[in-house]
Amino acid sequence: MTSRHPLPVLRVGDWVSYDDGDHQVVALTGTAVRLRSSHAVESVVLASHLMAAPGFAVTGTEPLPGLEPFGVLDSLPEPVLTAAKEWEHHVVEVTTGLPPGTGPGTVPRPGYDPAVQSLAARDAAKAAELGVSVRTIEGRRARYSAQGLWGLVDQRAVRNHEATGRADARLVEAVRDAIDAETHASTGTRSRLMRRVVKALEAAHGPGVVPIPSTTTFYKLVDALSTGRHTFGSAVTRRQTANRPSGPFTPTFAARPGEQVQIDSTPLDVMVVLDSGITARADLTIAVDVASRTICAAVLRPVGTKAVDAALLLARMLVPEPMRPGWSQALRIAASRLPHARLTDADTRMENAAARPVIVPDTIVIDGSKVFLSDTFIRACERLGISVQRCRPRTPTDKGIVESTFAALNTLFCQHLASYTGANVSRRGDRLEEQAVWTIPELQDLLDEWLIPGWQSRPHDSLRDPYLPRRAMSPNDKYASLVAACGYLPLVLRGEDYLELLPASWRAVNDYGIRIGYRTYDSADLAPWRRQHSGNTAKRGLWEVHHDPYDLSQIFVRTPGGWITVPWIHQPMVSAPFADFTWQHARRLAAQAGLDDTHEAAVARVLDDLLTRAEHGLDKHTARVVGRTRDGAATHRPPADNPVPDAAEPATTPGPPAPVVPFGVFDAHAEAERWL
Fold first, then answer.
1. Rounded to 5, what percent of the chain is helix, strand, coil?
2. Residues in domain Integrase catalytic (predicted)?
3. What is the pLDDT of residue 500?
4. Cα dist. 296→291, 348, 388 in Å?
5. 440, 274 in Cβ contact below 8 A?
């Protein structure tokens, strides 16, 4: 026989506490309860709503028994749980006359029969049997009635103690301050922290005023206060932990392609060979679509990403990825699960494109980098109708998708390359510079080719089929399903649009041409506009001039009749296109040689010598500048105008040549070669 609490019920005539007042139950109809308040106001509520309301209780009855915390009971020490069960045996015998677990027909012991002895007499008999007071028995019985076995547990065994124990409050505060100061400092030991705490207490309260515990006790206090903060572990982990938001993490969600695209830049964990032979790391800038996890574009640059690189990333996002010579036919969009026919009908350039979706962003999420906050990038987004959303300062979790993509690229791609540096110095190999074999253009082509089968066609754990949740989908599969669900057409980016993405300045068109950065640009096409007002009164009649920072051999002037390409007048003196940082370095070399660094002809001769003698050996700084110049010029170009079919594929039955659809994007590199 076991103890059983009476089943709590709600009857007509009961008074309940509800909605900050007392109400009487006047009727029960199905799941509805009719109540009459103490002010004679009647209302009807659902029984489930009534019983779940805050403060609900049936007045005039015993409180509802609470369930025992079974998880906590299982974690109790065995002696404590055994003692509680022994008390349960006695309390149940006092209440019912029989201890728990007795069989049918068992007769109560003398003094415990409810038919003969009152409850008070049974309490007294049990108190005499156990050698305790009657009040102790009454208290145990009351707690058991309200809390079950948990009410009989010795609460000293489960009492929560302060993590700081009996330490002085001033000492605890000083330790907390010292631990906070360790967040951005180099990792030290507990002994260093103890010394700093002692010095801080002596400075604030005087020597010997605040008691300092033993070293062992102090270390225990430090361990308790630094739990989860990595105070004596990795400095990177410590800073990242301190930088986490205090609120709950909210996963980023997007329901259609382009609803949110996250952009970020980071140094790639691979050593590359610059054109001069110097090894260095490259910057990788990527754009990731949140809805499909598609890497819309990935651009590699020499270290030092510029605003025009971010603008070029937009250009690459908004045009199809062309097939390159040597690529497998399996990488074509026609061989993928993307809606090829539908996309080709909307944009004929998709005919010779690779299997990478063209995604037009609605919103782009960026961090506080000056590259993405530049006028060039913001103006490009405004022109394309893209909203720019900036993350909170020092909160990388606001763009967690692109941050995790960088980590995935290291695991899936970078670690398999020669001269992989690892995530930090502790993971770095020996003499990696000697193992570097890839140049930036080669690595860019390799990355572009890998992204299609290695990322776009690979199942992603965060992409799930809503009807088959256990099945992971690839970014291309997810894009196809989202297109079918919401409809989507890519935007066509014209050649003029690329010019709009370049940095702009405002200059006058004089008799000698246009001057920018101590360089003169002139062309016969400028004849109608010399000494003329542009019509833009806000800019005092100056003309809008765009230039490519990676190729200063020409500029582009907006006129009423369209864009005019204007070359540098000393371009024939220079053997190759050059970047803005190359020009600045040439000016410094000219000044060091005693020449006038504002005389462009003299600087042009120094620049030509700088670019032509790179293969004969340069100082380290000059070699790095030359390498960045050539790698930047080689990779800073939009997708090719004419996608070339795979030359490695065997010839098939002769037939009429397939029409080649031009991509219609301005190629600054090809234009520079034309002017040469």
1. 40, 15, 40
2. 253-413
3. 73
4. 12, 19, 16
5. yes
String of DSSP letters for 155-209: GGGS----TTTT--HHHHHHHHHHHHHTTTSPP--HHHHHHHHHHHHHHHH-TTT
* Whole-angstrom distance, CA of residue 526 vs CA of residue 9: 95
pLDDT tens digits, one per residue of 473-501: 999 888 888 887 776 665 556 656 667 77
Q: Is the pLDDT of residue 203 over 90?
A: yes
Highest mean pLDDT among 340-349, 420-429, 460-469, 620-629: 460-469
The whole-angstrom separation of Cα 664 and Cα 103 is: 93
> Packing angle between helix 169-181 and helix 215-225, nearest 10 degrees?
60
Q: Could you read off the pLDDT of 240-293 as tens digits, one per residue?
A: 888 777 776 677 788 888 899 999 888 888 888 876 667 888 888 899 999 999
Pull the structure tokens for residue 641: 């105008």
The enclosing H or E element of 150 equals none
Q: Per-residue pLDDT for 186 more than 90?
A: yes
Encoding tokens for residue 162?
């302060």
Distances (CA, A) of 515 to 506, 566, 669, 674: 10, 11, 22, 22
The three-state secondary structure class of 516 is strand
β-pairing, 21-29 vs 261-273, is unpaired
For residue 596, the number of C-alpha atoms closer than 13 Å in the C-beta half-sphere is 6
Work out the angle at residue 202's Cα, subtended by the Cα atoms of residues 196 and 204, and round it to the nearest 5 degrees: 100
Mention every residue, 6+ apart, whose C-beta is less than 8 A from residue 152: 84, 87, 88, 91, 140, 143, 144
C-alpha 179 chain-centroid distance: 27
Give the integer Cα–Cα distance in Å for 163 and 573: 76
* 356 has a pLDDT exceeding 90: no
C-alpha dihedral, 531 to 536 to 542 to 543, nearest 10°:
-90
The 10 Å Cβ neighbour count of residue 459 is 13
Residues 6+ positions from 60 with CB-CB distance below 8 Å? 14, 15
Which conformational region is residue 97 in: left (phi greater than 0), alpha (psi within -120 to 50 degrees), or beta?
left
Among 371, 239, 390, which Cα is nearest to 314's? 371
Euclidean distance between CA atoms 277 and 271, whole angstroms: 12
- Residue whose C-alpha is closest to residue 420's, from 621, 235, 279, 287: 279
Q: What is the pLDDT of residues 236-246, one digit of tens each?
A: 888 888 877 77
Is the pTM higher than 0.85?
no
List all residues 6 or more positions away from 244 whose beta carbon is below 8 Å from its beta carbon.
397
Decide: 422 and 269 in contact? Cβ < 8 Å. Answer: yes
Tens digit of each residue's pLDDT (9 = 90 or more) over 54-102: 888 888 766 555 566 666 777 788 888 899 889 999 999 998 888 888 8
